[in-house]
Structure formats: structure tokens, C-alpha cells
Fold this sequence. Notes:
Layout: E1 2-7, E2 16-21, E3 30-40, H1 42-49, E4 62-70, E5 82-86, E6 96-100, E7 105-106, H2 113-117, H3 120-133, E8 141-144, H4 150-161, E9 165-170, H5 173-182, E10 186-189, H6 195-202, E11 208-213, H7 217-224, E12 227-235, E13 258-260, H8 264-268, H9 271-286, E14 294-298, H10 302-310, E15 317-321
Parallel strand pairs: 8-9, 8-11, 9-10, 11-12, 12-13, 14-15
Antiparallel strand pairs: 1-2, 3-4, 3-6, 3-15, 4-5, 5-7
Helix pairs in contact: 3-4, 3-9
Amino acid sequence: MAIVVRVTAPGGAENLELAEVEVAAPGPGEIRLDQTAIGVNFIDIYQRRGLYPLPGGIPGVEAVGIVTAVGADVTDVTIGDRVAYAGAPVGAYASVRNLPAWRAVKLPPSLSDESVASAFVKGITAFMLLNRVYPVQAGSTVLVHSAAGGLGQVLTRWASRRGATVIGTVGSDAKAELARAAGAHQVIIGRDADFAHAVAELTNGRGVDVAYDGIGGTTLTKTLACVRPFGVVASIGQSGGPIPKLDLDELGPRRSLSLARPSVMTYMNDRDEYRRAAAAVLAALIARELVGIVTAYPLAEAASAHLDLENGRSRGALYLVP
């Protein structure tokens, strides 16, 4: 039996319920995990709201656990291994689950469960954004919205360590301190701040090379004004509202921008890319390059974690403990 959190109907956090379910023996190419730490991400909220498919009704895309059983044809993972995973099939909000063995990434003893579960998907997302979407390097200038959030801090830390100049936006003075601690060189404070004007001033009118917008809504249109000609805007979420319809004239030829809408779930379905990104994230965690504030919630309090995350009350990354 497994204790799970499932969605009873698309909607608010009140639609999350605790339940018991049977877990079948792992099939060919599968493993069973006793999970010890489960990452919480905004994609889980989108799944709960019904924006993304949720077969089986159990949200969640990453966790750490101990392998307790293996199916036929599994050779790279053995019982007793401590592993992390990310990606499809969804269903991480569970004390026990089965998943494809190729998703499992063995963990070194030096990394704690919480450090991996709170950073694995966020780290892979950041790796995709900093390498695949736009190659950030020394001399790049980037804009990170919600720079004090879980993904925002990872992006800020990794970009600044590459020698990029990071401009972050945050909602409060307290979150500004978190963004600065993560490596942000300039921080724009306030939910209603005219960040496009501030970015223009900070870049002497040039604009940033790439902007990461996980807010969506009306913020995305304003973000387009922050990027230099032939720069990139990466739309990576919609915590502030649905992605608006955009007129192509907003991108070019007047502005000559590129708009990316990258999916980390699609990215993680490529086994080679997934393995490469996972190895980079673990190396960065071992080097303490991605260390940030983390907050734990019991699995039974997943609804509280969701509410804190979507209402902006959380600081850093969140994870659940079965």
C-alpha cells in the first residue's frame, strides 16, 4: 500500500486529498521506490488546476527514494540503491511508487535527500534554460523574474557563477536579500514596479540578452520590452495568470526578438539530455553551487505547500516528506 495525495477535481488546493492505493509489482524495465523526499514545483500546481494532463490524478514530477524492488530487464539499478528521478510519468506525491528504471539517477552519500529533492527539477530546468534556450556565459546580462523563488535562486546562482550579470525582480525587501545572496547583481523590488524602465536604466538602454518569465499574465508583455534586439524571452510559467495572446509585431521586425516556450518535461524525455543535465545538477550540488533555503512539509500537508507557493509566501524551494 502507498499513501498518496491525489486531485479529486481540477481546481484549488482544497481539491487535494490523502488516500491509500495499492502498488503493483514493478513490471519489465520498472523499479519500486520507498520515497523519502518529494520536490514541489509550480508544474504540480498547474497539474492540480487542470492546465496539464494528470493521468492517475496524483501530481508531482520528482523525488528521492530507496529502491525496494526491480522488474525484469533492470540491470543498472539494484535493491537498496538511493536514487533521484524527474519527469514523466507524473505521480510523485506518494510514499511508494513504481517508475521506469532509466529515470533513476544514483545519488552519492554526500548529498542529502532534501538538497536533491528540492533542486533536481529546478536544476535541470535551469540547465536547459542556460544552455539549450540561450547560451549564458561570461558577459551575458539576464533578467530573472521571481529571483527569490526556488527556480529563480537556482537560475541566479548558476548564471552569476558563469560570469553573467543578473538582474532579478522580487516582491519584497526580504526576498530581495535572498536574491542578492543567490548572486543577483541588481534587484528590482515590488510587485507593481516598473521593471521595464528599471532594466532600461540598468543596461543603459540596451536591454538584457535573455529574460526568464515564469509569471505570465500582463508581465510577459512588459518583459518583451526588457530584451535587446535579437535577444530571447523564455516564457516558463504562468503563476500570475494565463499566457496572453501576442501579436507577432511585439516580437519583430520592430524589436527582432525570439520568444521561447520551453517545456522541461519534453526536455527530460530525451534520455541523453536528461542524463547530461542530471549529472550537471548533481555536480553543482556537490560543489555547493546551488545551495539555497528549503522548507519541508509532511506529505499530508501538500495543500499548505501549494498555497504557500502560489500565494508567494514561500521562501526558496519546498519539498514533502512521506
